[in-house]
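Lecture 7 notes: from sequence to structure.
We start with the chain below.
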Amino acid sequence: MSLNRILSIVFLIGSIILAYVLINGIKYDIDLEKRISQGEAKIIERLKLIREAEIVYQEVNGTYTSDWDKLISFIDTGKYYLTEKSEEIVTLEYGADSVIVTIDTIGVIPAKQRIFEETNYVLAGETGLFIEYLVEEGKNIVINQNVYTFTKEGRKLTYKASQEGTIVDITSKSSGEDVEKGEPLIELKKFKFNPNIDITQIPYVPGEKDTKFLIWADEVDKSGVFVDVIEVINPTPVDPSRKEDSEIRNRKPLRFGSRTDVTTSGNWE
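Predicted structure tokens for the same chain:
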């Protein structure tokens, strides 16, 4: 076999090996980025759930909590009081007006319902004459789905949903009855978080069996006024660039809240 032939074969094999290494390296980077993205999505979803639970806890109890057991118990068995605020203006003897604010409790729901569920309403989009509903109670509707028909200035029109969820109540309407723009017609229920989650696992970082989120809650003095603050941090970042010792200063571990400011914003937002 000639030298040229041997060199050609060697170069061919070398090219194949180099191509394999490059392709494999690119695939590894793509797979790693995908794993990081998926892992962080799960962590962010859990942080959002913890944040919502803490906000509702604070509304009921007046403070946040850094005790996971208390938070879990509240989610599981706590109550949330629905209130209605009214104001009355009273004129005092010397002519000045005083505002009397009254807050009445109009109902009680489970804290879990307040945390996990979201209520929205389908409002009438235009003023006209109602014809018929195109949906049923107990069914799900999606955005842009046909909801009801009505007439306006002699034209038959169809209203499409701008909200999604499960229909829990439909306002009774007869064909030919007036419908006013902005009038609530349908009540929808939508889950903000997975209702089947094991509540006892909420403190744990997804993908980390024995690692809990770091939680801190207290009152701090802000210009002479004590305010409630909370901070929850993921101690085991999926993305290496989010580690505390990372040289990338603006890439901190996923977290929400602050130990010094009145905020519940997340650093992923």
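Points to note: The first strand starts at residue 79 and ends at 91. The mean pLDDT is 87.
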